[in-house]
Design brief:
It is a single chain. The chain has 92 residues and is α+β, with helices and mostly antiparallel strands. The chain is built from two helices and six strands; from the N terminus they run βαββαβββ. The longest helix has 11 residues.
Length: 92
């Protein structure tokens, strides 16, 4: 299951997230998204946990937990739509 983790302090590392989620269950991967120009954290990332029950326990148990001074938001990641919105010409 792909888990969204938001409201991250800018100094949170992927290792920090790995250590936070590991006690709940197996962590397959951790990725914090970074700004392509500055390289700084964008304040959110994703954790992949292969076992659904463990992932759900992580969502329930870690949502709202303090991590480096901020209360993090943890929930199941939503798939982004690949279809464009609107998709036509505008008339003025």
């Amino acid at each position: 299951m792909n888990i969204y983790v938001g409201k991250l302090a800018l100094n949170v590392t992927e290792d920090d997230l790995q250590q936070l989620f590991a006690p709940v269950g197996e962590v397959e991967s951790v990725k914090i998204l970074k700004d392509r120009y500055s390289g700084e954290s964008r304040g959110f990332g994703f954790v992949v946990m292969p076992a659904g029950a463990e992932a759900q326990a992580a969502i329930t148990g870690l949502n709202g937990q303090d991590l480096k001074g901020l209360s993090i938001k943890v929930n199941q990641s939503q798939q982004r739509s690949t279809k464009s919105k609107g998709g036509g010409f505008r008339r003025y």
